[in-house]
## 1
Amino acid sequence: MKLVDPTVPANIQTSKRAPALASLEGKTIGLLWNHKVNGDKLLNETAALLQSQFGGKVLPIVTKRNAGAPAPTELLTNLAPECDYIITASGD
Amino acid sequence: MTISQAQQIHEIADDPLAAMDYCYAQGWTDGLPVIPPEEGRVQAMLAMEGRPPETVLAHHPATGLELTVHAAAANAVMAGCLPEYFPIIVAAFEAMDREPFNFHGSTVSTGGSGHLLIVSGPIVDEINMNAGVNLFGPGNRANATIGRCIRLTLMNVFKIVPGIADKSTQGNPGKYSFCIAERADKNPWPALCEELGYPEGVSSVTVFAGAGFCNVENHGANTPETILDTMADAMANYGCISTGQSVVVFSPEHVEIIARYGWSKAQVREYLFEHAKRPRKDLEQLGKFENGYNAQDRQDCHRGVSPDDILITVGGGDAGGHSAFIPSWSRGRGSMMQSQSIGVCIDC
């Protein structure tokens, strides 16, 4: 009996990780919120904690309107040049 | 039609029962036994689709995985579908592929949506779908297997496997199969396929990422208002209320009363929207207030953002004051129901 495989091969994507920062001192932090309840509070408090330890600047939080969909490319390309690193959070 | 070379073939002993066990061992099932996707049966399924087997029907934005006609056919065989069901499956995935449906979120979320398919039009009778007694229940091959094919495909092709990519907290019975047909003979209004604007004779499938199923019972109601107040209360229950869309399925008993008073579907929608609401302060107190309500500028929070968010159809057995409400998985505008013509391309 010949069975047709109902699956498809996993899609292997190669991507590079951004180089790690040598230090967080004086860096500008970007925040990306998925619009879930209390996510903004978590991100803001995390950024405040990092700022208190390392100085630098925290940008106003940026919001992804649809938590269940990938962040719009334009949102990421607009945010990335403005900061040294981004903090985001997933889940509910 | 030949089998695409991209689809792997497994050669096993000619033993149907062993083949069923093989499918289990490969991890191809939804927990229930499947029909082994034998090559000849898959070819018969492919014959119902005029496009090449490698034609892509849907793609998953997060993984980049794609569903071809060929892979859909293999999963349709495993679900137990007859070839004549295949055009509905093709149309359903094409509808789900549209961005507003949110193919990713609606399939992996903790919210756990079952993808409800509502079929309307001549195809319902042509392939003997069930639009009557036990509408959402077992017993009809078309309803059961078309809905099942959706889930098998999500698991096998898109790797949306429970506990791995599918993070649904409690799941949803509709994840096994969630497919119904609109009941034409008891529908006092235009068919859903007509309402959607499809030409006469063209059937439609509407796909909705539904959060669950709520039976709305009232055997004492004898006016449209009393039936609809019951339904509106279900639609506004604290566990479901959001700015998301709704599906309302009226039983023949309920819709006959509504129609007796001459209510149009638009009137029913308006009434449900106006009455399916909770005070804002109550939602705030419960932690259920969503930012999407700020745009409504109302003292009360209504289910949905307008009457157009409520799809109304008719189905179920002749006896029983039992209708149904299915809320959206999305707590807002994160997934919008989509419809597609079956077997024909309207926009080509």
Note: Chain B touches chain A through 53 residues (CB under 8 Å).
## 2
Amino acid sequence: MTDDDPLFGLLVQLVLLSLVAIGGVNTVLPELHRLIVTEGGWMSGAEFTALYALAQSAPGPNVIFVTLLGWQLAGLGGALAATAAVCGPSFIIAYVVASLSVARGESAWFRLIRRALVPLTTGLLVASAWLLTEAAAQGWTGYLVTFVTAVVLLTTRINPLWLLAGAGGLGVAGVL
Amino acid sequence: MTCKDEDAGAGGTGRGGVARFSLPGPGELFLAFLGVGLSGFGGVLPFARRMLVEQKRWLTPLEFTELLSVAQFLPGANVINLTIGIGTRFAGLAGGAAAFAGLIFMPIVIVMLLGMAYGRYGDLPFVAQGFRGLSAAAAGLVVAMAVQIAWPVLRSLRAVALALVIFLAIGALRLPLVWVLLVLVPIALLWAWHDRDD
């Protein structure tokens, strides 16, 4: 990948995005959607949500959604570059903080910063939930599946994979 | 998904009841986190805690919770920051890198295989229909997590106001995140400092 490649610009954006992704990839989904779908026109909204669903059905941390986006846009190189762009900065930060805090506990400053940022993280997460629901639903049955999935997860301790499989099955059967 | 993050912090075998035999090296960290990455369907953190506190006994429950609370306020996924922090703590930079690589290696391989399959078969009508259902359910996972996280947080005027403003700015108006944060983070810090008791 070279500097002229528009994908290079996307990588730079990913690096910046990873620095504000407190709470993980889910809090920056609306921003990723804006960069890749609305402004970049790299893929359709339906493809974006399908890839998100695909990443959810694989084991491991959510950041592999970014790996998958890179894969879809530019193959193996894109997958590795996107993963490195989104994990690199937070790796360095986590390493430095861990090295510094090995001897010490959490300071009052840590607590203040965390308490200040928690409402922002929460609002971002609700925005992500809103965006994904809107993008996934094609008609009322889609909203119903989203709603039922959320309620079942909140009220039982079922493995989420069963719900994903069930909803996928309903889709294949042509019910949705 | 980090749906079950909040149960991962507390509880366990108690503060003093854990024996530690020897500090793990990079190779051992890689293998241990390889298993965590593979088992973490729908939430890696509970599996990481089980491995670190209950199975390997590399951390006491209290140490785990302390490391997690530091990891949570850093950018990036909680579980990745925690993994890097723990690897670093036990075996320096090599340990951090080994633990991180172990955690994400298999998930990356698997997700790329899924992506390959999607690229080949994604246009078939029944696959596209299946993804319609899968996408709606995946949105439901995020809705549930948003509810779980928002419910205990939205208990003060400060929390509700800030969450609502950023939701409107990002979710409804779709403003660029960096600018929104440049405005809201200083406000959030000042407000939290002002309301130290809420």
Note: Chain B touches chain A through 98 residues (CB under 8 Å).
